[in-house]
């Protein structure tokens, strides 16, 4: 066999990173995706009372912007340490921009503003009405199907959400409460659209290589908004606020969004959106325990219905 020429060797060296990138950009396995999904439920569910405390000490837009800045810096450092820090390809650039806009900037901004007016536990439920919007989007755009068990799980889960935010359990005459509810529904819609976009996109980069840039896009959008809308003197710097920011930036934002995007790529959109209803379950319990928010009959009934829906969704997946 003849020796390889210098040109051949250069071609091989150039092709090696592309091959490694394609291998690294493959979705994680199903078991890994489910483990990541469970981790996200705990991190994001427990974060609702943390965010409620934070927006009482810090203006909401500044809080959302700070969360994205800290999360972006964390993921840039992690990606560099893992050897995955690189510019997004032209093919991946649109999904980087859309995730940064919808899942990072719009979702976090709406949630932070809403938490000023809506209890943390109930906010978790309203923000996670995402399945209401994902189901028609996934059926039309992704061609996903619903079997009977999944349909039953969907109906039970959404019935539980309905019980938790039904008008009898809320003061719908309160304009600020209505504004908060509307912002949370907008957050759910933005995430639902982005969830389907992520599933449709054929990734070249990995969640770790693209995550820092997605967070950076959100930060670039929200930092100027915070500077224009809010005064730095409005922040009450305390040890508790610093703890909230550390939890929200490196942990809930950097680790959480990387994990959810990784799971999103490996699981059907409808299954993912239904399964993430476990996050408001954790959020309700954590808010009741930490903030003393009441768990009334409506909340308990909603918890039971959502839990039953999650079981049916899990069983339906096992039969696939």
Provide structural commentary:
With 320 residues, the chain is mostly helical. It has one domain. The chain is 78% helix and 0% strand. It contains 13 helices and no strands. The chain has helices at residues 6-24, 30-57, 60-81, 93-114, 120-127, 130-142, 148-164, 175-200, 207-229, 239-266, 269-275, 278-291, 297-318. Helix 9 packs across helix 10 (239-266). It is globular. The chain starts with 5 loop residues before the first helix and ends with a helix. Mean pLDDT is 82; it is low at 1-23. Pfam families: EamA. The chain crosses the membrane at residues 27-44, 64-83, 95-118, 124-142, 154-172, 178-196, 208-228, 240-260, 267-291, 297-316. Keywords: Membrane, Transmembrane, Transmembrane helix.
**Sheet having the most strands:** none
Q: Can you write the helix and strand succession as a string?
A: HHHHHHHHHHHHH
The count of domains is: 1
Gyration radius from CA atoms, angstroms:
21 Å
What's the number of extended β-strand segments? 0
Alpha-carbon distance between the two ends? 49 Å
Q: Proportion of β residues?
A: under 5%
Give helix % range. over 70%
Give the overall shape, derived from the CA principal axes: globular
What is the residue-mean pLDDT, rounded to a whole number? 82
Give the count of helical stretches.
13
Category by helix and strand content = mainly alpha
Low-pLDDT residue spans: 1-23
Task: Give a brief rundown of this model.
The chain has one domain. Helices cover 78% and strands 0% of the residues. The chain contains 13 helices and no strands.
């Amino acid at each position: 066999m003849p020796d390889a020429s210098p040109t051949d060797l250069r071609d091989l060296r150039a092709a090696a990173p592309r091959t490694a990138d394609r291998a690294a950009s493959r979705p994680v396995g199903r078991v890994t995706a489910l483990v990541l999904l469970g981790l996200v439920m705990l991190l994001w569910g427990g974060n609702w009372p943390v965010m409620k405390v934070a927006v009482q000490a810090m203006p909401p837009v500044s809080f959302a912007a700070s969360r994205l800045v800290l999360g972006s810096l964390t993921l840039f450092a992690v990606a560099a340490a893992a050897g995955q820090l690189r510019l997004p390809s032209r093919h991946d650039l649109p999904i980087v921009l859309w995730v940064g806009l919808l899942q990072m900037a719009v979702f976090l901004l709406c949630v932070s503003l809403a938490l000023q007016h809506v209890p943390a536990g109930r906010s978790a439920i309203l923000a996670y009405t995402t399945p209401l919007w994902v189901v028609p989007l996934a059926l039309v755009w992704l061609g996903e199907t619903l079997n009977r068990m999944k349909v039953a799980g969907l109906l039970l889960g959404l019935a539980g959400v309905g019980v938790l935010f039904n008008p009898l359990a809320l003061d719908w005459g309160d304009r600020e409460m209505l504004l908060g509810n509307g912002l949370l529904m907008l957050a759910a819609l933005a995430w639902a659209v982005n969830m389907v976009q992520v599933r449709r996109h054929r990734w070249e980069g990995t969640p770790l290589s693209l995550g820092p840039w997605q967070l950076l896009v959100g930060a670039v959008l929200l930092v100027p908004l915070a500077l224009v809308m809010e005064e730095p003197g409005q922040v009450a710097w305390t040890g508790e606020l610093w703890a909230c920011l550390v939890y929200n930036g490196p942990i809930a934002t950097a680790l959480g969004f990387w994990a959810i995007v990784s799971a999103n790529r490996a699981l059907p959109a409808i299954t993912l959106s239904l399964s993430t209803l476990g996050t408001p379950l954790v959020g309700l319990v954590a808010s009741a325990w930490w903030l003393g928010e009441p768990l009334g009959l409506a909340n308990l009934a909603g918890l039971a219905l959502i839990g039953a829906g999650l079981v049916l969704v899990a069983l339906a997946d096992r039969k696939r």
